[in-house]
Amino acid sequence: MYTHEQTAHMQQLTLQWLTIADSHNATLTAMAQIQTLRRLLQFHEHRYYVANQPLISDTQYDTLYHLLDKTEQQYPELVTADSPTQRVGSSLNAAFETKQHLVPMLSLENSYNADDLNDWDRKAREMAATDAVAYCIEPKFDGASISLIYENDVLVRGTTRGDGVAGEDITANIKQIKSIPLRAPFSDYGIQQIEIRGEVVMTKQAFEQYNQLLIQQGLPVLANPRNAASGSLRMKDPKEVAKRNLDAFLYHISYYSKSDAPLVEEANQRAQELLRSHEGTLELLWLCGFRTPQKEKKVVGNIQSVVAYVQQFEQQRDDLPYEIDGMVIKVNNFALQEKLGMTSHHPRWAIAFKFKARQATTQLLGVEFQVGRTGAVTPVAKLQPVSVGGVTVSSISIHNEEYIKEKDLRIGDTVIIERAGDVIPQIVQSLPELRNHTQTHIQFPTNCPVCNSTLYKEEGEAVWRCINAECAAQVVERIIHFVSKDAMDIKNLGEANIKKFFELGLLKDIPGIYHLPFTAIATMDGFGKKSIDNLQLAIEASKQQPLHRLIYGLGIRFVGETTAKTLANAVNHVLDFTQKSIDDLLLLDDVGIKVATSIAHFFANAQNIALLQQLEALGLQLRNVKKDTAMEAGALNGQTFLFTGTLSLLKRSEAEALVESNGGKIVSGVSAKLNVLVVGADAGSKLEKAKKINTIHIMSEAEFLTLIQNQSPSHVTA
Ligand code: IVH
Hints:
- By secondary structure, this protein is of the alpha+beta class.
- Helices cover about 40% and strands about 20% of the residues.
- The chain has a five-stranded mixed sheet with strand order 2-11-10-3-9. Strands 14-13-12-16-17 form a five-stranded antiparallel sheet, with no helix packed on it.
- Helix 1 (about 5-25) crosses helix 3, helix 2 (about 30-50) runs antiparallel to helix 3 and helix 4 (about 115-130) packs antiparallel against helix 11.
- The protein starts with a helix and ends in a 7-residue tail after the last helix.
- The model is unreliable at about 90-95, about 630-635 and about 710-718 (pLDDT under 50).
- 2-(butylsulfanyl)adenosine (IVH) binds near residues 107, 140, 141, 145 and 251.
């Protein structure tokens, strides 16, 4: 969609805006500023969400975005529906309005094997009255179908499939999906109004991240990315939709009208050519800035090649970043498509090939109750082991009492389970019709299965909790969390060892990690000198971990990694939180009342304060080091920098000059004296060495530019 030259130009312009943004105000009209910023943001959204090759950091994107937002607020009359700022803010009515599709949304006929495909191919060739039928094969995305209308290049409506004739108007939610452009240059192809079809999906990664968030909040996880996508599209608050990180693939033009303005002959020919085949449609949509199955699609000349491709794709299914439940085979040529026509239910020129389901039925044998770090008691269903999509499943979390009731699960039930991709298996449903009176209800315990203290449930919550902070299960889980990868990252202290040390009385609590009795451990099976040395080193090194990791490691309820970073940045020392009220905390980014209350509660507890004091006495980092230096020095005064690898935005000499003009110093090698290593492409040994020194801050070129920009009175001259 963007040529090499355009890309270079956009990037150059971006850097100018990022570095000398304020002085632009003087020379450009508001209109010109707004238009440039929109073009830049549209370009970077495409790089990030469609091409998957961002050229600037998230912070830099935000800088441009805020600049546009600020200018638009000053000139509200210049705001248009296709401005990137209009993705957020618009809200939906309680119930969605129903809107008629321009052309009905049909379904697809299904096929399950080579025989089905051969039959379909034979009929297609008969009806087309030719043997020369080319097919275009592409993934069948497992998400929620949508229909979009653009008028004069601007997205004016997005709807769900609904009953096929009319769908729900979910325009505000659709605008939250960053890979759907709010403006697309259809007019370049002579198109005035266009209705296009596609599928909204949640990538496996976004799905798992979202479920992690739900788990942290003690909420039941979503069963699969498809439910997640279709549920998200119907949410009442578009801001919530934005948090779900949805994606969309477009693959069909159902209607278009020609614009009045004539095209130059060359453009006209190009448009006609693209609008002649399915393959061309995908290309056109891609050129207009949409995600399409461009890479995955394949055009073949006969049904044997179709069979081979769909079978090959089924093998690779798990390697894709999103879920697909089959492939769609379409007659490539539109003239032939028209000849074949459609039934009232599906087009005759397309067919879906469905992959083998990754569901299985099995027996629910019993339920165990596990106690987590926050005392939450989670029921885990023990199943008759069964293979689903190549993995044997024998136990599945069933979340909480309400979930059990909702799904009407009973011990002895036959249940359908599903495993979608790498995703945690879920129970889809029980099959009550197969009950034979031997099934029993699941009894929730009234006492903690580990320490036997009474369980409590807070009002409005689904989870029963053991509130005995000394409960062995909780202590062990807290230690496991404290040393985990995203917290203090003590690699050599795994879950199994923590449990073993705890049982033997060698490790009783978090501070205990820092005085493990290594002489005793050395006598245990499986602990040689080398593994003890490594363990000691890893524990020692963790003392230098930055404050946000420690905060995350404390396992404060509702405080995930991002909130931990916000918290760390808000204080000079973690104990400063003892002085902060809930109102103070509410001023922080993304901290709502639930999170603020939980944080205040944590820092009001004397035992927690004692824990933090012990950790400080042991040499852990309770100060916010970065904030300290920034406050004392202002710009980069006294900080040492080193650049490694190939920089792409600046010349090495320019970058070094920037450091020096801001009071920083360039050093020649990686040592404990180095503060910041800026890493370009193909960095080698310097980066490896720096990773081993915990005090070195490693950042990308983009982050470096942001740092300069935030701290500096002098800037890059482009
Ligand atoms: S073509 C008339 N292509 O599958 C055109 N559909 O089971 C019909 N789907 O409602 C749609 N990926 O939501 C088409 N590459 C793809 C698809 C696809 C997923 C969905 C679509 C449709 C459903 C039919």
